[in-house]
Amino acid sequence: MTTVVDIDARGMQHCETTALGVLLRHQGLDLSEPMLFGLGSGLSFIYWDSKNLGFPFLGGRVKPFELTRNLAATLQLELLVQETTSPRKAWENVAASIDAGRPVGLQLDSYYLDYFSSKVHFGGHVVAMYGYDDHDAYVVDTEQQGGALSTSLTGLAQARAARGPMTARHRSFTLTTAGSPPSPQEQIVPAITACADAFLNPPIANLGHRGIEKAGKLVRTWLQRTDDPRRDLPQAALLMEKAGTGGALFRNLYRDFLAECGQLLDSGHLRTGHGLYVEAALLWTEVAALIAKAGESGDEQCLVQAGGILGDLSRIEREAMQALLRLGRHRTP
Questions:
Q1: DUF4872 domain: which residues (predicted)?
Q2: Which of 13, 17, 149, 223 has its CA 20 to 30 A from that of 37?
């Protein structure tokens, strides 16, 4: 059995921030999960519907692996990414890192991991791997999955080779700090303003505050969108609250990030943004509950109410991000 020593195998709420936490703590940089998410400019929104989807998807973060790239750039970390179409080369890339005493991040399809009891294809899942033997790989996943876990090498290979939405070509990655670990405090404002700018100026109407507004109109039709509302609507609500989002479609994480920033920076704009995300987080949880109730009861009025709240959320989050964008221009020391 080969394992990396001194691994802090702490599971968090979200898969990508969990893996990033494992890799960075091994480099001597221990940041909270909200700070990892916020410094990676992770918050976003997407309303995603297409012919190959059985039901619409509401996403609350940037696309898979963008958070990792953002965090590496923000903290001036060396990010080494390896991708290949060869399963043999893919394994050699991972084994070489672990043999050298470095944990490695993997992007894969969670469907094939032995410990996942809910078998749903998701090609944007991320784990940190820190060891292996002849039969199993040793990984760190989210707290709700169990933290430090093992999965068969066969299942891991299938998960890494999977193709479909959000998958990557056997992607593995490592992070390295240059010299002493960087101070995140100096990078808070650039990370917040980058996130706010992207949210306020989405390239298409499905993203950012425009996407939330669109969702508010379309969610009212969801009972007609499915032939099994008792399955699809509660599942959509579960994905918003429980599927590694930290609750409230990642708004709880961003709320807590802004609160942590408020202990480091004295800014009225920051306090305004934080207060609005406190409100937004509560409302997102209410939307999820209404969607679940609509599926269970068949009551369309629940979706009408959810749509109205989403309209409010579009405005609230737009105002929050407008305040946070001003951090870059009017920062109070």
A1: 155-324
A2: 149
How far is Cα 140 from Cα 21, in angstroms, rounded to an integer?
Answer: 10
For domain 2-30+78-176, give the CATH superfamily. Cysteine proteinases (3.90.70.10)
Residue 253 pLDDT > 50, yes or no? yes
pLDDT, mean over the chain: 94
One DSSP character per residue, 28-50 reads T----HHHHHHHTT-EEEEEE--
Residue 332 token pair: 């109070």
pTM, 2 dp: 0.94
Q: Encoding tokens for residue 180?
A: 């002493």
Give the residue extent of every domain in the chain. Answer: 2-30+78-176, 184-328
Q: Which three-class secondary structure state does DSSP give residue 79?
A: strand
Q: What is the pLDDT of residue 119?
A: 80
Helices (H), the chain: 15-26, 33-39, 66-74, 87-99, 153-161, 188-200, 208-218, 222-225, 229-241, 251-262, 268-297, 300-325
Tell me the C-alpha distance between 184 and 109, whole Å.
31
Question: Which of 123, 151, 155 minimizes the C-alpha distance to 139?
Answer: 151
By C-alpha distance, which of 201, 200, 211 is closest to 47?
Answer: 211
For 88-147, the pLDDT digits (tens) are: 999 999 999 999 999 999 999 999 999 998 788 889 999 999 999 999 999 999 999 999
What is the per-residue pLDDT for 248? Answer: 97
Report the C-alpha gap between 196 and 43 in whole angstroms: 9
Please tell me the distance from the alpha carbon of residue 83 to that of residue 90, in angstroms, as a whole number.
Answer: 7
Give me the pLDDT at residue 333, please: 41
